[in-house]
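Researcher: Let's continue the batch. This sequence belongs to Endophilin-B1, and it's 397 residues. Same format as the previous ones, please.
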Amino acid sequence: MTTSFLQFTEEKLGQAEKTELDAHFENLLARADCTKNWTEKILRQTEVLLQPNPSARVEEFLYEKLDRKVPSRVTNGELLAQYMTEAANDFGPGTPYGKTLIKVGETQRRLGAAERDFIHSASINFLTPLRNFLEGDWRTISKERRILQNRRLDLDACKARLKKAKAAEAKAACEGDAVPDFQETRPRNYVLSASASALWSDEVEKAEHELRLTQTEFDRQAEVTRLLLEGISSTHVNHLRCLHEFVESQTNYYAQCYQYMLDLQKQLGSSKGEIFSGTFVGNAESTSPPAATSPPAVAAATLPAVPTIPVVPTIVGVPNTVAESVLNPNEVKPPASGTRKARVLYDYEAADSTELALLADEMITVYSLPGMDPDWLIGERGNQKGKVPVTYLELLS
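Model: Same format as before. Here are the structure tokens for Endophilin-B1:
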């Protein structure tokens, strides 16, 4: 360990040579590091996507580390559904507002359940494989890389030791090859030089033996590490399959959400006319003249479109005939300009004779009249004419 540390320090100071790995091995190392770094980022950001609340993420992490089951948590959609249902009960489930709250709340509950299923599926099919790689395969790769690094340091230390021994042996051999001088102390120095040369020869043989052993260990560890690094390709294949499953789960989730909202929009669109009509009828009954002068049959035929009447007199320059035309769409004349084409997004069933039934994907002409509810337009299809809800249309230029 001390020798490896000394070799590492000298390499950092530029005082020792370092055994370089081949280019293919270096590419495998770089690819593995890249895979680990991006897998960590994708894992963390996917966790944020599935659970935006950081406190909840920490709680789930702790439960996971303690090997305990994560408690079931109510989704935001389910909590909103609960509030809407309770509010509807307080306001009156039979009132228009209460009925709508119940419908929207039920849809929010279904959205929350769909979100829960998506999170569960994504966690099993996508997050778990990524986490298993980081906590399993990558830890094994990191461990073997550390062993390989120690083997390389030992190998370089043996090379340095052998180099020094050979240099000392050559120096001792040069001194031993000199012609001895038998005057004074020279004979003694000559004998010492010959002895040192023999000692350094033994040191060289010992260093060469250690180098062969260290080289064998290094080659063996390099092969083990190389096989693990080449396994990164299999990891990519596995993560690719998991990514497809994640996309499929997300697609199903958003398709469910879209269908739930589409159904809700249809429910609200079909009941919107009834709600506003009922609201106006309740207000109109308090101000209408006696039954003898206002036959109920006439009122029932014209009231669904009456909410626009109070607005018309407040518009400067708009004659009363415009208000009458809103009440009778079949008699409405389209304006000289301002008509547009619109594509119908989905089917719509007319609530009464003042509205125009729609079929998905058909093209109609639409325009607005002064005083109309901004959520409605006048639609024309051939000789047919009537009010249509804006939310059911895609206005074209």
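Researcher: Any comment?
Model: The first helix runs from residue 2 to 12.
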